[in-house]
Amino acid sequence: MDAEPSKNHIRNVVKQISFLLSPRTIAVIGASRTPGKIGHEILRNIVEYGFKGKVYPVNPNADEILGMKCYKSVLDIPDEVDMAVVVIPAQFVKEAIEQCGKKGVKAVAVISSGFGEVGKVKEEKEIVETAHKYGMRLLGPNIVGVYYAPIMLNATFGPRDVRVGNIAFITQSGALAIALMGWTILHDIGLSAIVSLGNKADIDDGDLLYFFEQDRNTRVILIYMEGVKDGRKFFKACKRVSLEKPIIVLKAGRSERGAIAASSHTGSLAGSDIIYDAAFKQTGVLRAKDIQEAFDWARAFASIDPPKREGVVIITNGGGAGVMATDACEENGLKLLEIPEDLARKFRECMPPFGSTKNPIDLTGQATDEKYEEAIRIAMMDERIGGIIAIYCHTAITDPVKLSHAITRAVYETGRLKPITVCYIGGERCYKGMKVLNEANIPAYPTPEQAVSAMAALYKWARFIKKEKAAKTSPKS
Known about the structure:
With 477 residues, this protein is an alpha/beta fold. It has helices at 7-21, 38-49, 93-103, 121-133, 174-186, 205-213, 231-241, 256-266, 273-283, 291-303, 319-331, 341-348, 369-381, 400-413, 428-439, 448-473; strands spanning 25-29, 54-58, 64-65, 68-69, 83-86, 107-110, 137-139, 145-148, 153-156, 164-171, 191-196, 220-225, 247-251, 286-287, 312-316, 361-362, 387-393, 420-425, 444-445. The chain folds into two domains: 7-300, Succinyl-CoA synthetase domains (Rossmann fold, 3-Layer(aba) Sandwich), CATH 3.40.50; 306-464, Rossmann fold (3-Layer(aba) Sandwich), CATH 3.40.50.261. Helix content is 43%, strand content 17%.
C-alpha cells in the first residue's frame, strides 16, 4: 500500500493553494474595457465585491480599466504578484504563463478554455509544465474562477453578491458553479469558498481537501465532480479529511451515457460508478443524489454539530406530516426513540388530551408557539434523545415567524445540546419563518423528507467517525 502523504507535503500544498485563495496581489491578464466580456466582469467582481489587496489589470491595448492603470504585460507590474487570473485565447496562454513565471507569480488561475476538453491534451500538458518549471501551481484551465469569503475575493464571472458562510464548494463544472452561486443567494446559503476546477490539469479535488481541512472558515466541504484523474490521491485525502470535516459529493455520470457526457465535458474519465460508491463509503464521504439534497445536507453541517447518541424524536402539529417523516426516517436509517413513560408525561403537558406522546410527538393543530417551545425545551434537555426533527403545518393559531423566534429561544437557552432540523409546510409566511431559523443557524426545510434527510446525513457522518475511532483504539487481532 502506498505511503500516506507526509505532513510536509500537506503543508506545502496548503501554502500553494493559499496563494490562490488568499492572495495579497492579483493580476488579471486579459482584463477588458468592455462590459459583458469575461475579462471585464472578473475584474469588476474583484473590485466591487470588496477585495482589499492590490489588483493590476493587464491588457496591451488599454491604458486604464475601471479607473485602474493598465499594464502591457505582467512583467511591467511594479509589485510582487501572488496570483494571476488568465483570461485570454488558448493559443496565448502558454506565453502568458511563461511571463508569470519570470515575474515570480505564485499561482495561476486559467479561465481560458480550448484545451483538454476539446482534445488539445498536448497543449494542456505544456501549460502545466511551464507553470511547474517556475514553481507555480495552476488551477484549470476551463474554469469560472475562485471565490473566498474571508478576504472578500470574488475572482469569478458569476454573480457578485455571494452570501458569506462556512460551506466550501468545489466544482468541476463552470456553468453549474455560476448557476449555483445564484441559487445559494436566493436560498440564503452562505459559502466560505467556491473553486472551479475545470479540467483539473494540475490542482485537483485532493489538493483542495487538504486546504479546507485546515481552513478555520470552513465547516463542511461540498464537491460536484464528474470524475477524478488520480483516484488514489483523492480518496487518501478523503480518508484523512473526512475524520475532521464532513465531505459531501455530488457525483455526476451515474449512468453509462452520463459517464460518456462527463468525459466529453471536461476531458476526465468518469470511471465505474460502482467503484466510486464503494470508495465513498470506505472513506466516509457522503454521496448526495442531487443538488437539492447536497445543499440541504451542507446547510445542516454548516449550522449544527453532529449527534452524540442515537434516538430521534419527531415533534409535529400534523399527524399526516408526522407519518411522512416517520417513513422517511425508516428509509434513511434513523432510529426513532421509544418514548419512556416519564418523558411521555412531560410531553403531555404540551398538548391537549387528544394529542399523542408516541413518536412522532403530535402536539395537534391546536399547538401554539409556546407549546412548541416547551416541547423542544423538553427534548433538548433529555439526555436520552439524540436528535430532534420539528415539523410545523401552517395553521391560523400560530404565526410561523413568531414560532421561529420561540424555537430559537428553546434551542439556544438550553445550550444547543443536540442537533435539530425543522420543516415548515405552508406559504409565504412559512418561507419567512424558515428564513428566521436559517439566519439563526437552525436548518429549516419546506418538506419533512428534507428535514429527515439532513438529520440522517448528520447521523451517517457521526457513525463513521465513531467507527473509525473505535477501530483505532481497539487492540489488533
